[in-house]
Amino acid sequence: IRSPNVIRLLGSPTEIERRLMESEDALEVSSLFDPAVFRRKLGDDPDRRSPLTERQVQQVLEGRNRLHIIVGSAALSLDRVAEALTVAKPEDIAIHEVTCQSVNDQVTSLARLRSGRQHVVLDLATGSQREQRDAIERLRAFVSNGGRRSASCLAGPSADWLWTDDSLTGEGVPYVHLQLWNQDMLRAWAPECQYPLSTTDQRQALLDATGGWPLLVEKAAGAARDGLADQRARQEALRLLDEQRDGFLASVGIPDNPVTRRVLGSLVEWTDEISFDELATLSGIAPADLLDQLLRLVRLGVVSNASSSDSYRVNSLVARLLREH
């Protein structure tokens, strides 16, 4: 270290101090595995990730005699939940996928089994609200009558009555919410991902471009794996929206009604974080109706209130697409 050549490479004390100060925000301590933010890969594609974190998987599969409601949309990869549970399950658990129409026959058959643990995944998308309620009650009866049974219901926008229905919560039915990618989740993925995610700025650039939506995040990761630099990879991901813009917005599941349009219009117009009272004044919507709409939009990932429970911000990508609409 005392060699003149090494000293010249390091630079003067002033130069070393300047470089360290510039790198202060970029340098990070390696983090240990955190099941609360890690999403495992699904199948052979290393960039196709689970919509559930490992902690959520554990919560759902270890909840014996319990039914979970999993809330999300196609844009949040709700259609991958059954696959994610199948990939992550212990060997002694069998996963069974059912619909509102097939749940009765399936649970009747499973009730005869005397060995192994059974987990039923109910897709509510194919039923009316009445059929959805009946199917949930049938599953609750099934899981409560055996110590080796559990179940989960996939509650997308077609079952959004569940998102604000307090009756099940009051009876001890836990909810699991699918999420957009965020800083912590991307950091946990960094060791396995070809897209550069080692610094806060790199992760934020990807989140700003994609809004954290899984389809676009995974597309950028795949483009980087194919050899594109990070900026080009982000551009490649956004090219999907040139051809699938309307399809993407449909997959997000934004309710098509005048009140929702007015709420989103006000949020997009404001452009920054806004308090609940300010939004009520700007939109002219009654507080009770506004709160109901915001809760639904938060469940969809369209609106966030991460920094404060009383302030809201529209997702950056959704805002750009709505302005262009």
Question: Overall mean pLDDT score?
Answer: 90
Distance between the termini: 61 Å
User: Sheet with the most strands?
Assistant: 5 strands, parallel
Shape: globular
Strand content: 5-15%
Count the strands?
A: 8
Q: Nearest-angstrom radius of gyration?
A: 23 Å
Strand order of the largest sheet: 2-3-4-1-5
Judged by helices, strands and strand pairing, the structural class is: alpha/beta
Task: Give the helix proportion (percent range).
Answer: 40-55%
Low-confidence stretches: none
Describe the structure.
The protein has 325 residues and is of the alpha/beta class. Helix content is 49%, strand content 12%. The protein has 15 helices and eight strands. The strands form two sheets. A five-stranded parallel sheet has the order 2-3-4-1-5, with helices on both faces. A three-stranded antiparallel sheet has the order 6-8-7. α5 links the parallel β2 (93-99) and β3. α10 runs antiparallel to α11. The longest helix has 23 residues, at 230-252. The chain is globular and about 75 Å long. It starts with a helix and ends with a helix. The mean pLDDT is 90.
Question: Keywords for this structure?
Answer:
325 residues, 8 strands, alpha/beta, 3-stranded antiparallel β-sheet
Helix and strand topology:
Blueprint: H1 4-10, H2 13-22, H3 54-61, E1 66-71, H4 81-88, E2 93-99, H5 103-110, E3 117-123, H6 129-144, E4 149-155, H7 166-170, E5 175-177, H8 183-189, H9 200-210, H10 214-225, H11 230-252, H12 258-270, E6 274-275, H13 276-283, H14 287-300, E7 303-304, E8 311-314, H15 316-324
Parallel strand pairs: 1-4, 1-5, 2-3, 3-4
Antiparallel strand pairs: 6-8, 7-8
Helix pairs in contact: 9-11, 10-11, 12-15
